[in-house]
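Human: My hope is that you can spare some time for a protein that puzzles me. I am handing you a single protein, as its sequence and its fold in token form. Could you go through the record with me and say what the backbone is doing? Take your time, and here it is.
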Amino acid sequence: MASSSSSGKVEDLRLVNLVKDYSGVRAVDDISLTIPAGSFFALLGPSGCGKTTTLRIVAGLEDPTSGRVFIGEQDVTIKPPYQRPVNTVFQNYALFPHLTIHDNVAFGLKRRGEKDIETKVSDMLDLVELSDLARRKPAQLSGGQQQRVAVARALINQPDVLLLDEPLGALDLKLRRQMQIELKRIQVDVGTTFVHVTHDQEEAMTMADTVAVMNSGRIEQMGAPEEIYELPKTAFVANFLGQANLMEAEVVDRDGAQLVVQAYGNKWAVPTARAVQNEGQIIVGIRPEKLRIALGAASDTEATNSIVGTVTDASFVGVSTQYLVRTPWGQELIAFEQNLAGGDRIRVGDEVSLTWEKSHSFGLAGHENVDAGVMDLSGAIAEAVTESS
């Protein structure tokens, strides 16, 4: 099903120097970006980072303090929601309980007096795979089915941009994962630009072509999911998008295309191209799944970076075992080991070595807080260090 938006074609969405202040608090702080037409874009970040406010400004539900919103060449900054080629899908679905699924989807078309409503509704229900449930009421559907109805009702109006505000937050884990696949399929089939707001890292990485990680009203990093996961530019991004082991170190030498860093009596290599700074204090990062864990000392420290430590926790989660390893300097590192075979496993109290390929290291600015982006016990997000180096 090809997309045919209200403006005749799908247009880029552009935000230009967008700012939103609430009583002296800056919720959105000078955001500028272009979301290409027909892409699946995710705004990812913790509660209070400004992502939902940004979405509401695009939808016309909030006025910006300053800045502009463009869809194609059309400036929609001061246009009311009903005059924008935009539709929004909310977490609570907002379906009409007294109407059938068919009539929920047809609602917008009927209000505008459109022709050939039956064909359009039938095509849209086929797209979301709900044709056989057209005569049911919303209460007779599962949460995932209701969410697909909400998407169909929004898409049938042929918007240039579909905004999704935490659309899967009310679903259980298994259904949420199924809906991630379904939403991506629908977006590819229809070709409309999707802008998805979420705090769920898996959702963002599973569905989006591009992810923008937001923190304190700003975009810290934007790119393809694999790019920002493998090569984060800040401690906040490294910690918030998945899990990361971040260790304070100092650059002491160079060896070709690698930095030689020293940390707590260890020397490690970090590719120069994977470090945001190449001298002085630095933070060395490594993802838990890149670590290899083994009993005893490391055998090939020339080819790899290595650390010794003591296992303090081992959690079997089916596809892998997750270990916490306390280092000699007291920091606990996370390592994942895929469960490829049975037999004896490493246990709490065992002395182990952690090794990783030098090419898998990344380097962050030394002045950053290694806990930025980590959830503390109260559920708050640790503040990123703001002072300059």
User: Anything to note?
Assistant: The radius of gyration is 24 Å. The CA atoms of residues 230 and 287 lie 8 Å apart.
